[in-house]
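Weekly structure sync - notes
Attendees: PM, LS, DV (DV joined late)
Agenda: review two folding runs queued last week.

Item 1: First target. Sequence and structure tokens pasted below for the record.
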Amino acid sequence: MQNRNGACPCCFGDGVLRYPTKIDNSLLTGKTYSSRKIPELMHYSYMECRTCRALFVDDLPDSDFLQSSYNEAEFVSSNDSLFAARTYFHELNRMSLLNTGKLLDIGCSDGSFISIVDSNSEMKVLGIEPSIQAINNSDPSVRLKIEHTVLEKFQGESEFDVLTCFQTVEHLSDLRGLLTKSHELLVDRGRLVLVCHDRLSLVNRILGQRSPIFDIEHLQILNKSAVKALLETNGFGEVRVKSISNTYPISYWLLLAPIPKFLKRFIDSRRHTRYLSWGIRIRVGNLLAVGRKIQD
């Protein structure tokens, strides 16, 4: 285990225990470290920052354990991944971030996002992903543009104009390492784009610990103030943070809903049927944050 000594990874504020550990080892499976699984609602002990109100795990699991867990994780759904990628492309395209240059997608899963960018822009794209099953489920046209690695071990190209990191910051044991490495990889005034959960959104405040953001994979859960502080205290300026809506299949939304597990298992077994594959756009508490690298 690694220890943060009670200090918030976003703003360095002091943390106080808010939610004790809730883990049943008998429920751990090959999907525990998979994206878009049926929520298990298990989590490590969460501290709450007194300053920015981020939740964070103080006694972190070993980084080698995490890397191994993600490497071996089952890949759940290319359809859900494609819906997410379309949402992110739409948001970044509206902000004119996908015109020309080089883009690196950190935690790119099956490469759906870089595939869309590659087909619809002049950008040169690259992705890194720790899950071998996710890479094996990528389209052959983009597979060679995905490197099987984690960010701290990435030794490839640099001087990227845009780095994207979608729903990945929650999973990192070294959150500030992400920002340091991003600063190294970006050109001067390049942009880092994060998408993360907002623990203070209305739906998450209503659901409390029944919200799927309470997850053994999530080592920190941010909010608007926390993600803004994270970027600004790590060499990024002109920070913009906004709430976004997401489009996902009906099956995905039902699997996240607080309904009985036997219904979720039934839905999961039929998630690719016609009617459960229809996309619906809902605002459920996700944030998009963009910061520009301040020149060294």
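Item 2: Second target, run right after the first with the same settings.
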Amino acid sequence: MASSDSLLEVRNISVYYGSFRALEDVSYTVGPGSVVCLLGGNASGKSSSMKAIFGTVPLRTGSIRFEGQRIDGWTTAKRVAAGIAAVPEGRRVFANLSVRENLELGACTLRDGRAVRTYLDAVFDQFPQLRERQGQMAGSMSGGEQQMLAFGRALMSRPKLICMDEPSMGMSPALVSRNFKLIKSIRERGTAVFVVEQNARAALKIADYAYVLRTGSVMLRGPAEQVATDPQMQAAYLGHTPLAATVPPAAH
């Protein structure tokens, strides 16, 4: 993906925790309106990548740019205000607040009450179930419903990019399928999505481009359909069952 087409550019970053190397010389690019997935197993560097994008861990080397502006010196709040939203691992909804209150917190960077109401109606239109349950305490919802709420909360700031951390974690196969359909619907409305995920098979079905991490370095990158059929990917993350039946081969 060329830098001229980028919304987010993570350039040659390294992240260390003391002497432990979490990421070394890693680069990612997310284009406007695209879905990009970052795949890898435990301790591969996926979570550190997400923390670096939001500025909750310092970079030892490298830079991060959003819409051409360098943001790695910005606070997390400034990055969110610029148009980057998060759907964190484990959803992290506010259990003792209502669905509506959780959604309104997603618009905390906005000062225009009328705009907040407009955005709230748009989220309710996209997720009618949230409208029906807007007075319900978030903690009483099922895991799948909380994930939907986390998606809706991220959309409340009208972001240009949503970063999702393990949206399939702890979900049944049916809910995983629904979550990835929601990601597709978000992309279809023009919002780019960066998905950090262990479920490679599900993520590659909806992504445009993929990166695969191993022990803090990118071992594989390319169009999602190409990565899905790569022998390294098949052996390391997808078993030995080809995805060709569900993902078309890359064009040559």
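Discussion on item 2: The radius of gyration is 18 Å.
Action: LS to circulate a short write-up before next sync.
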